[in-house]
DNA sequence: GAGACGTGGAA
DNA sequence: TTTCCAAGTCT
């Protein structure tokens, strides 16, 4: 591998690619950190509106530290991996207590919800520190450049990394992986470093990284209940995602009514088939609460509950 | 170290 | 329609 050529061509390519990403326009470590947390296992197009809404509401880390958890979760609702939001607020309070955003790798790594990848990304992008950020994109790009699935990705990425601008390099490799060096069908014709790529030379780029075995999808059928009384609707605290509210499922003493709709909802390795059904109760289960139907926008509602309420609204418009 | 954790877009 | 999996972290 001609490392210098790879470094030069790839950073030059990155300087011209995707200049519109909102987090490329900031040098605020807090904003960069927010973007990196949101981008964990989440596509750029999904993150952009959340990122902008989040920073508008919480422009400074102090604002996030002082916010109510329910509001943070509301702003996060729909993004997934909600422990990220809770950890972020925990970390925001750590930061405020420490008197400012941490400025070295170890201190950044110590924040709640920040692992090796995010610490390296923030340290390099916000502070120019020479830490290679290793994510799924970097693993794929490095394995392909080396043409070898057993290559030491961390060591190779560190060797390749620009010492002059580690943040630009890290983002460049990730961006290349995201838009050119795609997992299934890499766009080698448009790749700035295909001439330096060993996998491309050997024609094995589609086989790298080797496929991982997938756990079986479990299918589950459930009912979500719409129990209304005087403009209010019964919700139960989410058992899965604490801080969120759900429509109740079947429980002892409930009387089921007509079916209002159905939808699918996938959660990790489970594929749920939900039917939405009217229901009535004599006594309210202890954990449940009545919520004003006009104020549901103000509380953290699970995505499944939102989908269910959507078919509810559709049916009330066209009964 | 395997498994859990969310969601939605692309193939 | 189903399958894959994305700027990972935590337990």
How would the blueprint of this fold be written?
Blueprint: H1 3-16, H2 29-38, H3 44-57, H4 61-66, H5 69-76, H6 83-98, H7 105-109, H8 116-127, H9 136-146, H10 153-160, H11 166-179, H12 198-202, E1 218-226, E2 228-229, E3 232-237, E4 245-246, E5 255-267, E6 270-280, E7 289-292, H13 303-317
Parallel strand pairs: 1-6
Antiparallel strand pairs: 2-3, 3-4, 3-7, 5-6
The protein binds a DNA duplex (11 and 11 nucleotides) through helix 2, helix 3, helix 6, helix 8 and helix 9.
Describe the structure in your own words.
43% of the residues lie in helices and 15% in strands. The chain has 319 residues and is α+β, with helices and mostly antiparallel strands. α2 packs across α3 (44-57), α8 packs across α11 (166-179) and α9 packs across α11 (166-179). It is globular and about 75 Å long. It binds a DNA duplex (11 and 11 nucleotides) through α2, α3, α6, α8 and α9.
Task: Based on the model shown, name its key terms.
3-stranded mixed beta sheet, DNA-binding, 319 residues, Endonuclease III, domain 1, alpha+beta, 13 helices, 2 domains, Nucleoside Triphosphate Pyrophosphohydrolase, single chain, disordered C terminus
Give a quick rundown of the structure.
With 319 residues, the protein is of the alpha+beta class.
What sort of overall outline do the alpha carbons produce when their principal axes are compared?
A: globular
CATH topology of the largest domain, which one?
A: Endonuclease III, domain 1
CATH level-4 homologous superfamily of the largest domain? Hypothetical protein, domain 2
Q: Tell me the structural class.
A: alpha+beta
Low-confidence region ranges: 315-319
Number of strand segments: 7
Rg from Cα: 24 Å
The average pLDDT value, as a whole number, equals 91
């Amino acid at each position: 591998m001609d490392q210098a050529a790879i470094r030069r061509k790839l950073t030059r390519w990155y300087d011209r690619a995707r200049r519109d990403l909102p987090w490329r326009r900031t040098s605020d470590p807090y904003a960069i950190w927010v973007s990196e947390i949101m981008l964990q296992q989440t596509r750029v197009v999904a993150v952009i509106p959340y990122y902008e809404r989040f920073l508008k509401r919480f422009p400074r880390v102090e604002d996030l530290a002082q916010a109510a958890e329910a509001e943070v979760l509301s702003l996060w609702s729909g993004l997934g991996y909600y422990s990220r939001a809770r950890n972020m607020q925990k970390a925001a309070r750590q930061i405020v207590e420490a008197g400012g955003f941490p400025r070295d790798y170890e201190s950044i790594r110590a924040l709640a919800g920040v692992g090796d990848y995010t610490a390296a990304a923030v340290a390099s992008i916000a502070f120019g520190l020479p830490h290679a950020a290793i994510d799924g994109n970097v693993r794929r790009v490095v394995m392909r450049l080396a043409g070898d699935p057993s290559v030491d990705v961390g060591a190779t990425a560190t060797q390749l990394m620009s010492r002059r601008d580690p943040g630009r390099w890290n983002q460049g490799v990730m961006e290349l992986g995201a838009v050119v060096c795609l997992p299934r069908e890499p766009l080698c014709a448009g790749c700035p470093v295909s001439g330096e790529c060993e996998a491309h030379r050997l024609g094995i780029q589609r086989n790298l990284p080797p496929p991982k075995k997938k756990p079986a999808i479990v299918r589950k059928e459930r009912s979500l209940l719409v129990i209304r009384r005087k403009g209010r609707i019964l919700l139960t605290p989410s058992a899965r995602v604490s801080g969120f509210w759900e429509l109740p499922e079947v429980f002892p003493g409930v009387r089921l009514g007509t079916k209002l709709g159905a939808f699918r909802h996938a959660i990790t390795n489970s594929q749920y088939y939900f039917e939405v059904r009217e229901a009535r109760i004599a006594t309210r289960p202890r954990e449940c609460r009545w919520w004003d139907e006009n104020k549901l926008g103000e509380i953290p509602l699970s995505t499944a509950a939102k989908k269910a309420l959507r078919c509810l609204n559709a049916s009330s418009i066209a009964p």
